[in-house]
Amino acid sequence: MLKVQMLEKNFEEENKLEPERKSQLAKKLGLQPRQVAVWFQNRRARWKTKQLERDYDVLKASYDLLVSNYDSIVKENAVLKSEVASLTEKCLAKELGGGEATIPSITSTSELLLADITNISVPHSGRKAEDRLSSGSDSSAVIDDNCPQLIDSGDSYFPNIEYPQCSNLPNGLHMEDDDTNDNCNYLFSDMFAATNQQNQEGRPPALWAWP
DNA sequence: TTGTGTTTTACGACCTC
DNA sequence: GAGGTCGTAAAACACAA
Known about the structure:
Elements: H1 3-13, H2 19-29, H3 33-96, H4 111-118, H5 129-133, H6 185-196
Helix pairs in contact: 2-3, 3-6
The chain binds a DNA duplex (17 and 17 nucleotides) through helix 3.
């Protein structure tokens, strides 16, 4: 077994070097203890660099996913807002014309929001639309009995429900918790722990230059 | 062959326990 | 003071032109 391979094997077992192990290893390989120590120092530095690269990749993937989800939500929001405006306009027109306000058939994209307006249950959700619109008792949505309209109080249109688009984050990565602390480690520690388990990197040196 | 980029070894400065 | 990290120099190596 080459000296480098022996060192790599020792490094995998324990990346820190106690004095006794350093002496034993140096004797075994015919090297100066100082050389063994330096090799471990440099090997730790290389490992750290690789680890930073892996961490960066994980974070970038997570970021890209979030950006993608955000864009989808923005687009959907625009569609829903235009539908609300259109329906409101129709309601007002009918009311002014003396007709009875009726709600058109539910479309897939507007299903949630329309359900909020008409206060009916959405079959697939099993939850009342009103419940989904607001997380608390003080709903920002004001329902008019005669002609339902969603009054924008300044809060988001999005009710307090789970968004599937946002649920496929990397393992261990989750949205902001109630018990948030200021240390970002809580957010990344699990994710990094996962990547730490696959850290056998780097090619072996082409040549052992020591005497 | 040569220029260039990458990797490895080694060291000094500084930090932590 | 021992042993750690960090930054860097120098040598070795890989590879395209």
